[in-house]
Amino acid sequence: MEKGDVLGGRFRLEEQLGRGGFGVVWRATDTTIDREVAVKVLLAEHATDREAVSRFVREAKTAGGLNNPHIVTVYDYGWTETGSGKIPYLVMELVRGRALSDVLKDGLPDHAKALRWIRHVCKALDAAHRSGVIHRDIKPANVMITQQDDGKDRAKVLDFGIARLVTQTVQITITGEVIGTVPYLAPECWSGGVVDGRADLYALGVMLYEVCTGGRPFRAVQPAEFVYKHLHEVPPRVRSTDPALAELIAQLLAKPPGDRPSGAAEVLERLRAVRPGMLRPDDPSPEQLRRRADRAWQHGAAGEPAEAVEILTALVPDFARICGPADPRTLRTCHDLAFWLARDGSPGAAVTLLDELTQVSGADPEARADARRDLAHWQREVARLGPGRPRALSLGVLLGGGAQAG
């Protein structure tokens, strides 16, 4: 195939976009309706390979039957005559963007963005599974991150070339290789047994682990090493600011399919509730933060309120980042800070802080009630004795802007 060739009397090849093990992808023009499209052409050396041709045609029929904004749309397929004989081609939506695998080469993406992309993949998988199709090769290289007209990015899943109906059995290729990409294959894929949508969820778990940590849960050089680790090893849990994310990833990577979430829709709902943020290797645990806060209280109780204020002022942002801005432990530390501010001669600053605490969105009702009680007390003290020394402390700044008044 060369630039300028016209396939099917309609699709003019303009520019080669990429080349894989089975085909070449071109940017092309649909001359009938003057639309840019992507055309995937099977490599000539595979034209006589019945398995490769079958996979190629299957992608057209499988993806062509799926309609979802997070699945690359297939418009048409056909055959073209070459010196090597007839070769199939596939006409698809032209997606402008980068494969997630290429994005990851630049380093870890913004965590909130990464979680949004994984939610998009969940939507694609849910649509496919509801149509009776499992993808069987979910991995970053098969997820495109594309910019939309509204400026937002969107993840789209492509390459349904090895998809199967959920009722079919995993097949070993004639060369003895398991179909799929080794680092992302679920344990059941190695046994030649029945595979359903939960194998896609396992691969999704590997990919989610990767976008959160920068590495896959299992590292190996030889396929046999991956087989052993997928079947027998439990990967380290991710260190996220929201324990719910670590728990979800652990369940997605469960060895028995029955221990994984029930479907992509469940994973999507759970991801929507996850608070973005990953812990650094040197970050303290919530328990360590609480012990530091207790030491601050001990300083205050020993007649050193200024020391307590200094320690707590530095601790609140860490509590907000690691536990969450509306977490009871974070709000308790803010409340303690207000108390020692008042004892250190700044009741006016304490009133301001307590007033903001009563308005934190998502705060525990008991924490709000405690703040209102102490707010009333210190308001009376300020009215009687004055605000004391001014302190430039803002709850929004301390919490990193993550908690808002309701």
Keywords:
406 residues, Transferase(Phosphotransferase), domain 1, 3 domains, three-stranded antiparallel beta sheet, 11 strands, 43% helix
Kindly report the average pLDDT value: 87
Q: SSE order, as H and E?
A: EEEEHEEEHHEEEEHHHHHHHHHH
The domain count comes to 3
Q: Mind telling me the C-alpha Rg?
A: 28 Å
Which strand order does the major sheet show?
A: 1-2-3-4-6-5
Residue stretches low in confidence (pLDDT < 50, at least 5 long) are 165-178
Strand content: 15-25%
Summarize the biggest pleated sheet: 6 strands, antiparallel
β-strand number: 11
Count of individual helical segments: 13
Instruction: Report the helical percentage.
Output: 40-55%
Structural class: alpha+beta
CATH superfamily of the largest domain: Transferase(Phosphotransferase) domain 1
Classified by CATH, the class of the largest domain is Mainly Alpha
Distance between the termini: 61 Å
Principal-axis shape equals elongated
Question: What is the fold named in CATH at topology level of the largest domain?
Answer: Transferase(Phosphotransferase), domain 1
**What is the annotated CATH architecture of the largest domain?**
Orthogonal Bundle
